[in-house]
């Protein structure tokens, strides 16, 4: 993908697991996590104050491509919560050697869940 941004995955014969694995690999190989370390503490604090976001105010046709997976949850069973469980460790890359990171794990997952649910607002 970095070599060809016009790559159409739909016309390739890749399994869903292959595409998801490639995405996780791409994000894990970035020099810094997608959610920068310097923002993570603030996000955890904000999430602890407001753990549940209101419904997304944007109609589905205005949502970015990234949310299409969770909008197909009846077929693929990938709710925003399931996606966040799969992707939060890769997107945030916490240092699991510290007790703080282990304690905040549920918050990290919730933050990614909210980012997926509210993607039109954030992205």
Summary, kept brief:
InterPro entries: Rho-GAP_domain, Rho_GTPase_activation_prot, RhoGAP_dom. The chain is an all-alpha fold and 123 residues long.
Main traits of this protein?
123 residues; RHG35 protein; GTPase activator activity; Rho_GTPase_activation_prot; RhoGAP_dom
Give average pLDDT, whole number. 81
Strand content: under 5%
* Number of DSSP E strands: 0
Q: Structural class, from secondary structure content?
A: mainly alpha
State the helical fraction.
55-70%
Largest sheet: none
The helix/strand order is HHHHHHH
Region (Disordered): 52-71
Protein name: RHG35 protein
GO biological process, one term: regulation of cell size
GO molecular function, one term: GTPase activator activity
Question: Strands, helices and their partners?
Answer:
Elements: H1 16-28, H2 37-49, H3 68-71, H4 73-76, H5 80-92, H6 99-117, H7 119-122
Domain Rho-GAP: 1-123
GO cellular component, one term: cytosol
GO molecular function, one term: GTPase activator activity
What does this protein look like?
The protein has 123 residues and is an all-alpha fold. The chain has a domain of 75 residues. 57% of the residues lie in helices and 0% in strands. The protein is built from seven helices and no strands. The two termini are 20 Å apart.
């Amino acid at each position: 993908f970095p070599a060809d941004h016009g790559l159409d995955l739909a016309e390739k014969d890749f399994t869903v697991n292959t595409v998801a694995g490639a995405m996780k690999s791409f994000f894990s190989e970035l020099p810094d996590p997608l959610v920068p370390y310097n923002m993570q503490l603030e996000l955890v604090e904000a999430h602890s104050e407001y753990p549940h976001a209101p419904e997304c105010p944007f109609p589905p046709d205005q949502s970015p491509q990234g949310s299409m997976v969770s909008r197909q949850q009846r077929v693929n069973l990938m709710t925003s919560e399931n996606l966040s469980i799969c992707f939060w460790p890769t997107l945030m890359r916490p240092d699991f050697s510290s007790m703080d990171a282990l304690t905040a794990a549920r918050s990290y997952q919730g933050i990614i869940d909210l980012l997926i649910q509210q993607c039109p607002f954030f992205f």
